[in-house]
Amino acid sequence: MSEIVKITKVTGTAVPIKGNDIDTDRIIPARYLKEVTFARMGNYPFFDERFDASGKKKDHPLNDPEYNGASVLFVNKNFGCGSSREHAPQALYRFGIQAIVGESFAAIFAGNCTIMGVPTVTVSAKEMEQLMKSVEDNPRTEYTVDLESKTLSYGNHKIAIDLPETYRNALTTGSWDSTGMLRANLAQVKKTASKLPYMNRFAS
Amino acid sequence: MAGRTLYDKIWESHSVGILPTGQTQLFIGLHLIHEITTAPAFDMLREQGMDVAFPERTFATVDHIVPTDIRSRPFLDSEAEELIQALEKNVKQFGVEFFGLDHAHQGIVHVIGPQLGLTQPGMTLACGDSHTSTHGAFGTLAFGIGTSQVRDVLATQTLAMDKLKVRRISVNGALGTGVYAKDVILNTIRRLGVAGGKGFAYEYGGAVIDKMNMEERMTVCNMSIEGGALVGYVNPDQTTFDYLKGRPYVPTGQAFERAVSYWRCVASDPDARYDDVVNYEGKDIEPTVTWGINPGQAVGICEKLPKPEEYSDPDGARKAYEHMGWQQGAPILGTPINVAFVGSCTNSRMTDLRAAARIAKGRKVKSGIRALVVPGSTEVKKLAEQEGLHEIFKEAGFEWREAGCSMCLAMNPDKLTGREICASSSNRNFIGRQGSPGGRTLLMSPAMVAAAALNGKVVDVREYQ
Questions:
Q1: Fewer CB within 10 Å, N or C, chain A?
Q2: What's the gap between Cα B310 and its chain centre?
Q3: pTM for this structure?
């Protein structure tokens, strides 16, 4: 059984990646899904937007030295849409991102982040505009995402954040890594299964 | 008391209990796996010394990385070879049934589940692939999951889930000639938006859906996730039962009769309460083509490319114009193409291949156009060859390939290069999706792809009716 890790707070500098509907193919091109483990995924987030065909760096927030060491990612609407590949949040996490603040997230992406212990929290469009401006004005600004008080604070500012209550519970109580919690109920699982007629091929 | 939806009923019968987090522990009736999203999940099981809780409820195949021309092992791509070897080792060690490269049941996971009768009404079904919503065509609660969730299903046959709301989408009346299931779903996404389904399961119904065969319903449910909905389904009916009867994993005799009674009962009640209801008319749907970089950026074949200001996200539309290189206000009709691809879990079944073959028959692919037909499974390939469809395609100048995901996501050697434009029957027009960072994808029905291949440009398939 893995150790219980409660995730209540993420503090660090931030990096903004602008645009709605950023899909997981853009976050990590499919060719990197051929690797058998997630170990090297931290090399690949937004690869084709960060590097040209010859490997030369392109203009991208994740290449910008001003944002070096950021652990909070700012995004707009429907971030992480498309493919269910967990390689996308794994790539961001292994790059150093520990919390993502956005206007909204695609369902599978948010679920993948949560089960990895990476909070995805939402703010309004107007608040996101202000957050992105604050980090662009001063990339060294430190932000704290606090899941217990459901706030995001920086400088003199404190704004409310939102996330599904079940996700918040999973993160703050350390049950985001859900296998142990689910496996504890195996006897009940078998009971539920036994009531489903297809489990015995409709034999009775 | 208001009636219940299919979603409510399946949710209830598969609920193990409420977890300390407030989530529901949901039993997963069928788990399908493939080579891409599973290797780390099996590694996690090994690390924690866990076994597979219900090995008889997981089935494996290979689809994403499979070369569709020369399939001999070892694969030329050493990474693909390593990945398939990992799956072979894992299914053996953990006792999971495997439809490998040389197995008659091999194919795209969302084609073979239904084809084998593994997918059945009233079940929950999970797979590490977002297009798992395809199986909802059977009245199955089916959804895509990530790798850590694959681990949970392997280790416990359950997932920690939050219940969705249900939106009923009725497509009424009838479709015009040359308008297909693909056009129905592209229109649905265009109307409701690529994030419009967030938090919802989509229930598709109405006369247009009722009249569809199972393969057409699969095309519709397949792209639910492109509309932001994790789950899409159609209530099971006689069309469903007739399709399932006699398939390898479907019970026979008395047991089949019992199954049908059960399946009938899981359909939404006539007085079911929905969280939202959307209605539109089949006659309003034209053959539809995407012009941009998400599946909601689509137009009818007779329309002109819209102004960015016509979208709720003008910047998103501007980004699409920047990538695609089109002029605002230009007609979509006549847009040149370089590649034509018929295939993918959206459109690679017999209905799709027949529709494309009907257009291709006795005609020739325009010189200079690379055109591929990739059947969704080894079984579909066999059936198509029995009907002679492969001859029609080959005579017209299409390449006839082995089963796999192919150019939908370019994890095998089938890729766009440079700025190529592809008329594609697949599901995603995302930047870089088909293997070239500068590549461009136009999503459309298989018949429209065939017509585009013949003309070297986007045409109205209704000219061929």
A1: C
A2: 29
A3: 0.98
